[in-house]
Amino acid sequence: MIILGGSSRQSLATLRIELDSTLKGVSADQASAIANDLFTALVAIDSSTGLRRALTDSARDSASKAELVSDLFKSSLGAPALALLGKASSLRWSSPSGIGDAVEQIAVEAEASAANLSDSLDRVQSEIFLFSKLLVESPDLRIALSDRSQSPAAKQALLKSIFGGKFSSSTSALISHCVEARRVRSIDKTIAAYTHAVTARRNRVNAHIKSSIALSDGQAKKLADSLTKQIGQPVHLNIEIDPSVLGGISIRFGDEVIDGTISNRLAEASRALVS
Fold it and tell me: Which pTM was predicted?
């Protein structure tokens, strides 16, 4: 799990909103291409202390940092990923490493979005869990994939010999990026961070709905269409009938709650009166 503190946490939240906007209306292949570009940029960021410092230097203005991003990556990255990196460089980070952690998170989320668009997000989540379990159960595999003396090509060949054709395209892409990552941590912790990011994206597109009455098929479809338009990704509804909810509905995306119920408004009014 990626744990960011202070300004980095807020900047990641802003970057995730920017990712939502970037992914609106794209295809699964386009979302996967954005993810691949972000992972490509991440390798460069992780490989250069000077670059990390330059991109997070609060003394430099946003325009000069955006120009640096463009000069370094315009020939190798597509416009969507380039814009996301430019946005990342304009934000404040608690430490230079924070920007790499955030780019990694949105890269994984972009690939998870590709899986969601191809209706395979649940499968990807299960396969990532299976891979992390295999790393724990097979020390030899973990050591081989962690060996920095081995070339990326050799590691990819090993993965293909074991998992070739068994995983979805999104899972295969994420595992490939995981073993090629130049992050300062073990492969176990990297795949754990990927698991967290996939779950974060899954929570973003799975809405938990609380309503005092059952919604008709038409109402549920209208709500799903409205939320899909807001999120920019197909949204799946998990509807719970809760008699304690008075009027309206409560919508939860992971830790984010949109509450339009009368009971909540009454509770807020009561708290205001007490204070």
Answer: 0.79
Interval 69-118: pLDDT, tens: 999 999 999 999 999 999 999 999 999 999 999 999 999 999 999 999 99
CA torsion angle for 79, 80, 81, 86 (degrees, to 10)? 80
Residues 83, 69: contact at Cβ < 8 Å?
no
**What are the angstrom distances between the C-alpha of 268 and each of 52, 71, 247, 256?**
44, 51, 15, 18
Quick check: 239 and 209 in contact, CB under 8 A?
yes
Q: Where are the beta strands (DSSP E) in the chain?
A: 206-211, 236-241, 249-253, 256-259
DSSP string computed for 41-104: HHHHHHH-HHHHHHHH-TTS-HHHHHHHHHHHHTTTS-HHHHHHHHHHHHS--SSTHHHHHHHH
The confidence score (pLDDT) of residue 270 equals 43
Q: Is the pLDDT of residue 174 over 50?
A: yes
> Which sign, positive or negative, has the C-alpha torsion 104, 106, 107, 113?
positive
Tell me the pLDDT tens digit for each residue of 43-53. Answer: 999 999 999 99
d(CA 96, CA 98): 5
Which residue type does 66 have? A
Six token digits for residue 12: 């990641």
What's the sign of the alpha-carbon dihedral 164, 165, 169, 170? negative
Which residues are CB-neighbours of 129 under 8 A, at least 6 positions away? 195
The DSSP letter of residue 18 is: H
List for the chain the helix, strand, coil content (%; round to 5).
70, 10, 25
Name, in order, each residue with C-beta under 8 angstroms of 46's C-beta and a sequence gap of 6 or more. 100, 181, 182, 183, 184
